[in-house]
Amino acid sequence: MDSLNNTVFNSLTREEIIAQVDRICSTTPFNRSDRLRYFLKFIINEYLKGNIDQIKAYTIAVAVFDRPDHFDPQTDNIVRVYGGKLRRELKNYYRNTGKDDAIVIIVPKGGYAPVIFHKDNVPVEGREMQTPSDPQFMMREIEYPSIAVFMFNNLEENKNSSSVRIGITCELIVALTKFVPFQIIGPLTKDSNKEVDFRQIQSEYKAQFVLQGWISTQGSNVKIIVALSDTSTRKKIWGKTYHFDLEDTSLFKIEEELTGQIAAAVGDGLGIIFRQIKHDTYNKHITYNDVTQAVFAYNTAWFTQHPDDWRKAYTSLKNAIKLHPQNALLLALEVNVHYGDVMFEMGITSNPADRMEALATKAISLDPNLQIARYNMVVINSYFNRKEACIREAKIVEQMNPNHARILAGCSIALTSVGAYDLAKQYVERAKQLNPQYPGWYHFVDYMQFFANGQYNEAWLEVQKIHIEGTFIHPILRGAILGKLNKIDEAKLYIQEIFQIKPDFLKNPRRSFQALFVTEKHMDIIWDGLCLAGIEEY
Fold first, then answer.
1. Which of 394, 516, 395, 535 lies closest to 463, judged by CA?
2. How confident is the model over 433-453, as pLDDT tens digits?
3. Of the candidates 411, 428, 433, which has an alpha carbon nearest to the alpha carbon of residue 185?
4. Which of 121, 190, 351, 435 lies at a C-alpha separation of 20 to 30 Å from 403?
5. Do 291 and 432 lie in a common domain?
């Protein structure tokens, strides 16, 4: 192992780690599942070789599951499914057979790189391995009836259905969170050919219900099959097939019909009297097919975080805004695209920062109760380093809907950037609870806090879970921390990547990463890390 991992993991030897892996693999279910066993051994071997950056869904799919070179993790969930199973079985092992083992191996959510440590030196990621009887490490119990929502699947092979299924799933989750007595968890994903493991969903996420859906599209006609199941009985308690024409039916009406019937099904089973949902004038926004398509395109971009999808979302939004210039939702979503463009310099628009605040103010004036519009003020105040205003707006946004995981996580990033660490941590932990399969960028909160506190080893562990490849922020995050750790040879690879993506980086480097790191303190420590990594030599 390299010196970094020796430092973090108490100089555990290669032989000790391999022996621990063999011990785990000799127990059930590892000794009954070749794939699970190979999965664990592959990531450990790559870890021991120092190839942590190569432990990704693609490399695992090719090496462990014999997937072809053109494997696409967005359409094939095999690695994610087995990754979740590996995490669960490691937890079970250390709670039972391995409870007295000296060496602990975990695979934190958000990636597949293992974390290995001695049980007497438990890092943050390892606390979930502690026995459930220890109240310090127990998960917070779900306060309300909870529904685990799975990403809707296509009924047939139709690439045109992808944006519709992602869009409807994401919008449905937001709509369901407006029912105060519900705890909405998701979107979760699974292999389309596999059945939902209700026992696992109930145990791991404390969910009482599972919502699944299947979608097919033909032109503007959409067929949606929805099923709600009880995790304790493993039986479907409600289901229905819907037929909609997006030319004639608004997305809001689809949401309203689905959420109303789902609420009734859960309410009938538990005897809950639901508080009347407060419509936030969403029905004023989503009443046209072109608007619906723009919302779907935006949700797809948020889900994939791919620059091409952000460009498609911007084009779709601008086309819809030409027809509906007073639509607050469209204006609010456009602000989000501009902010993403500022953050990652995707070149989608010219001078995106100049338009954000005026658009956000206009959206709020048109609809003060639209949460996404208020959320824009959180990120804008963060961008301009208005800490108190950022905190104030974040609290307003959280009160509007405390169950919207994506917006809570976005607020946590903005709050971290201005140094409001405690509130940021509170929001991101809530977001993780609501979306257990959260994306890697959630880890920025812990990364930045560790970095700012001089806990460079811990920051390095966190940054390895953040995957925003293709943007210059990705190598900046990693190169800076490696510079602080004096891992110069490794850091140089990321320094080179910065200049491959942005050749003129040194003309005004601080301006390039100011949008994310915001404060002088943050920019100073990032720049210092990059200088230690040798960036000024280029």
1. 516
2. 777 767 788 999 999 999 999
3. 433
4. 190
5. yes
- Domain of residue 364 covers 285-446
* Same domain (yes/no): 161, 272: yes
Under 8 Å between Cβ of 334 and 325: no
Which residues, 6 or more positions from 24, have their beta carbon under 8 angstroms from its beta carbon?
30, 40, 90, 93, 98, 105
| Residues 486 and 524 grouped into a single domain | yes
Q: How many domains does the chain have?
A: 4
Same-domain status, 421 and 488:
no
What is the three-class DSSP state of 426?
helix
322's enclosing H/E stretch is helix 307-323
**What token pair was written down for 357?**
């605040």
Last residue of a domain, one of 278, 294, 314: 278
Extract the residue ranges of the chain whose pLDDT is less than 70: 1-11, 73-75, 120-145, 157-161, 178-182, 192, 250-253, 255-256, 259-289, 292, 303-305, 437, 538
Where b means 16+ CB within 10 Å and e means fewer, 497-510 reads bbeebbeebeeebe
Q: Is 403 exposed, middle or buried (0-12, 13-18, 19+ CB in 10 A)?
A: buried
